[in-house]
Design goal:
The complex is a heterodimer of chains A (451) and B (369).
Chain A: H1 3-10, E1 12-14, H2 16-38, H3 41-47, H4 68-84, H5 88-104, H6 112-125, H7 137-140, E2 144-146, H8 147-167, H9 171-175, H10 180-183, H11 200-222, H12 224-244, H13 250-257, H14 264-274, H15 301-316, H16 328-331, E3 346-356, E4 361-364, H17 373-379, H18 383-399, E5 407-416, E6 422-423, H19 437-440
Antiparallel strand pairs in A: 1-2, 3-4, 3-5, 5-6
Chain B: H1 2-5, H2 7-19, H3 36-71, H4 75-95, H5 101-106, H6 108-112, H7 119-128, H8 143-152, H9 157-166, H10 168-202, H11 211-233, H12 257-273, H13 286-293, E1 296-297, E2 300-301, H14 302-318, H15 324-330, H16 332-357
Antiparallel strand pairs in B: 1-2
Helix pairs in contact in B: 3-4, 3-10, 4-8, 4-12, 8-10, 9-10, 11-12, 11-16, 12-14, 13-14, 14-16, 15-16
The chains are: A alpha+beta (451), B mainly alpha (369).
């Protein structure tokens, strides 16, 4: 590739923004992991269930019994390593692998912000975020990084907002103010704001303002004139969502990640004020020759290519639902990993039936014999989890109850965004014999227009 | 869309509201809000408290007649004792769907009504007379199901009576069971009076630990697991493929299981409709909550669909023989029909109602996004 085309991407810029994101991310991850353990969620979500839902291809990822706590400890140590940029690349890699392993252990706990953490951690493995703001950075580094490394984080963070905004451009969100019209009246107990939350116009206001914010924030953060004000709105927006919804650490992750949009000089000022001087590079003007090696300013094929493919994947992945006919909110094929955040209120009830076609024996399943309440709740409206559960039931009854053949049917009712519940799964379909939502679901019988 | 036209105005209002937070006046009129505090107040004063009081009175009278009977086991005292057992068991059905925090902490339901009972173990305990009934392993050796075995176990009333006359240890175990029921009830009542009620009313928020969320989750849990599955589904063989006459509630009494199931449905339905137990009046309820929100189901209101379904389930259960042991042996199809009728409301309550009320069906809390 001609060097001139790439040169703006390779322009040396301050490494301070990357350092800020790295430090803040490591700190927040440490807090998140401690919080997770302290709430007893390792026990509840990974050790108590007798069985876990898996992502296709990752069935081998299982909780490690009591050693699961060790995994959390390892992840926490790696988060400290990230913060201090101690053995930076190893820390980033260990954090990415351990955190992702934790997320792969059970599909039930899927959250968009956990996915964001994994993606950002993976990206950090390939970024020189240790050049600035770390013990020892003052000795040898000039703290400069090629522009594309900062740009990659901006693009990733921008995509999260922008795609979250695009996903809101549908008739339920904009014209019915759903699901906010369902969720907000439940929070009338909040001081000051609470007394407004059961009014219809507030749900509409939040819906429209939320969509407008998500769509415009990445662009407004790019420009100097609008940046500070937009960042203030970012903080306000995320604090509001934190007050209103049980979304844990996500608001704080985004508040930190959005700092990437501030210019290098701003970050350097913050670091100079807050960090000991040996954490800061001695000179910021010239780039020493020593730094031009791996991950340096010279175009480096491997990290560049990995980052390029990652971002390309991020751009494309949210659109994969277009390959599926039917309403995405109904069948959910392509719903995960596409920044559809707080987008729908969906709940279901699933009664499974086992049938032995040979002797006509038929009996219902008490889900709590196999699943925790949380697993049952999540399974009750997600077709892929129903199929996996059906396989588990069939296996269990073949192996432990000596049934020769097992067919699994289900009476499932699902309510979506305030619509009355309706039958969801075709009652005559043997769920052990299907591999897609299209084969098992009844049609939605309503339309949601938009993206 | 008029609402869309009001949008810029709305924006202005909210900005103003944020702008003058510091000297905010009285809260503006609530549009269609639900007053959770009033709801909890009514539930506490008019439903929960009178139901627990009635139950407490019944188990105390049960204990008294047990004492009288054990002193002089005779047929009249036996009949009075059985009568009071029956009354207390029926009143338990109104209490069970609405566990207070204290009842939950004590495990009241586990010590009161876990069935089927382990009759062999009960006979062992009568012989050895030293069992610690607070052990979780003894759930199925005490409470009303164990009383059912002792007071209505196989044979005529005369045979049953003779067992007590022949073996005083049997009477002693009976006294332990009735004493324990009375004692547990008393503990729950005391904790309710000493701060339980005011804490219950004070937790009027919308979080997972607030009273409305907790009680409604418990209520639905009861409806799904104890009423639908426990009283009808499991004996009818819905979960095992073949009927299980031994799994019915009060299997030794000839005419009790249907009455208990009807009392349970009635207790659930009255709570849903907000019927006071103190006077013939209605107060704020899940029904009025749904109506305030205007939640619809198909052509009508969701609340009406739920009330109608309670009535249909009651009809189906009324059509059963008074003893479910007989029902599962000779007319199990009717049992299955009753199960199906109860099942419909599981969906209405657990999916439609919880979504409308924005209550998370969660016995675990975790982050969402």
């Amino acid at each position: 590739m001609p060097r001139t085309r790439l040169s703006p991407l390779l322009k040396p810029v301050s490494g301070a923004p990357l350092a800020t994101v790295r430090f803040y991310f490591g700190l927040l991850m440490l807090v998140s992991l401690i919080r997770f353990v302290a709430y007893g969620w390792v026990e509840k979500l990974y050790l108590e269930p007798t069985w876990h839902f898996h992502y296709a291809g990752f069935e081998w990822v299982q909780p490690l019994g009591i050693y699961t706590y060790g995994l959390f400890a390892l992840s926490g140590l790696a988060a400290i390593g990230l913060m201090l940029a101690h053995r930076y690349r190893l820390s980033a890699l260990v954090f990415f692998l351990s955190f992702t392993y934790i997320e792969l252990m059970d599909k039930t706990t899927y959250l968009n912000h956990y996915y964001f953490i994994s993606v950002l951690a993976f990206l950090l493995c390939w970024l020189p975020a240790h050049r600035y703001g770390a013990p020892g950075a003052g000795r040898k580094k000039a703290g400069r990084v090629p522009y594309y490394t900062v740009g990659a984080v901006k693009l990733l963070v921008g995509l999260v907002y922008f795609y979250a905004g695009l996903a809101k451009l549908n008739s339920d969100w904009l014209l019915q103010a759903q699901p906010l019209a369902t969720w907000l009246p439940g929070r009338t107990d909040l001081p000051l704001l609470g007394s407004f939350l059961d009014q219809t116009w507030v749900a509409y206001f939040f819906s429209w303002a939320g969509a407008a914010f998500d769509l415009s924030a990445p662009f407004l953060l790019l420009y100097r004139r609008t940046r500070s004000w937009t960042y203030a709105v970012v903080v306000l927006f995320h604090i509001l969502t934190w007050l209103l919804f049980p979304i844990g650490m996500f608001p704080f992750i985004m508040i930190g990640a959005a700092l990437i949009f501030f210019p290098g000089a701003w970050h350097e000022r913050v670091w100079q004020r807050l960090a000991p001087s040996r954490w800061l590079p001695a000179t910021t003007g010239r780039t020493p020759q020593a730094e031009r090696g791996t991950f340096g300013l010279r175009p480096n094929v491997l990290p560049g290519a990995v980052i390029g493919f990652l971002l390309l994947g991020q751009l494309v992945l949210p659109w994969r639902y277009l390959a599926q006919p039917g309403e995405l909110f109904w069948h959910e094929e392509g719903f995960r990993f596409s920044w559809r955040v707080m987008l729908m209120e969906k709940a279901g009830y699933a009664q499974f039936w086992l049938e032995n076609p040979r002797n006509g024996r038929r009996q219902a399943v008490q889900n709590h014999h196999f699943l925790t309440a949380f697993q049952e709740k999540q399974m009750s409206f997600q077709p892929d989890m129903m199929r996996e559960y059906a396989q588990l039931l069939a296996r269990h009854y073949r192996q432990s109850k000596n049934w020769d053949t097992v067919a699994v049917y289900a009476d499932v009712y699902v309510a979506l965004n305030g619509r009355p519940s309706r039958r969801y799964v075709k009652p005559e379909v043997d769920l052990t014999q299907v591999s897609s939502a299209a084969e098992m679901l009844l049609p939605f019988d309503d339309t949601i227009t938009g993206l | 869309m008029t609402l869309l036209r009001r949008f810029p105005l709305a924006l202005l209002f909210l900005t103003l509201a944020w702008g003058c937070e510091e000297n905010a006046g009285p809260a503006p009129a609530k549009g269609d809000s639900v007053d959770r505090a009033a709801l909890l107040q009514f539930w506490a004063a008019d439903i929960i408290e009178p139901r627990y009081q009635a139950y407490d009175q019944a188990v105390n009278q049960l204990e008294q007649s047990a004492q009288a009977f054990v002193e002089q086991p005779g047929i009249t005292k036996y009949q009075k004792l059985y009568d009071r057992y029956r009354t207390a068991y029926l009143r338990w059905q109104a209490v069970a769907p609405l566990p207070t925090p204290a009842a939950e902490a004590l495990g009241l339901a586990n010590y009161t009504n876990v069935y089927p009972v382990d009759t062999a173990q009960i006979e062992t305990h009568i012989r050895e007379a030293n069992i610690d009934l607070s052990l979780p392993s003894t759930f199925d050796e005490q409470g009303f199901p164990a009383l059912d075995y002792l007071l209505a176990g196989p044979g005529s009333p005369q045979t049953i009576l003779r067992r007590f006359q022949d073996n005083p240890a049997r009477g002693q175990y009976l006294l332990r069971l009735t004493g324990r029921l009375a004692n547990l009830s008393q503990q729950v009542m005391e904790q309710w009076d000493q701060g339980g009620r005011s804490n219950f009313i004070a937790a009027d928020g919308a979080s997972a630990t607030a009273s409305v969320n907790q009680l409604v989750n418990d209520y639905i849990y009861y409806y799904e697991r104890k009423l639908r599955a426990g009283k009808i589904g499991i004996p009818a063989g819905v979960f095992s493929g073949s009927p299980r006459a031994t799994a019915v509630e009060a299997p030794f009494s000839d005419t009790l299981s249907r009455s208990l199931a009807l009392a349970s449905i009635e207790g659930c339905a009255r709570f849903f409709r907000g019927e006071s137990e103190r006077a013939s009046r209605k107060g704020p309820s899940l029904k009025s909550y749904l109506d305030t929100l205007g939640t619809r189901h198909q052509d009508g209101l969701l609340s009406e669909a739920i009330v109608g379904q309670f009535a249909r389930a009651r009809q189906k259960v009324k059509a059963l023989p008074p003893s479910f042991a007989t029902a599962v042996r000779s007319q199990n199809t009717l049992m299955l029909e009753a199960y199906d009728a109860l099942q419909v409301n599981v969906v209405y309550l657990k999916v439609d109602m919880l979504q409308a009320l924005n209550i998370r069906v969660d016995y675990v809390d975790a982050d969402g996004d």
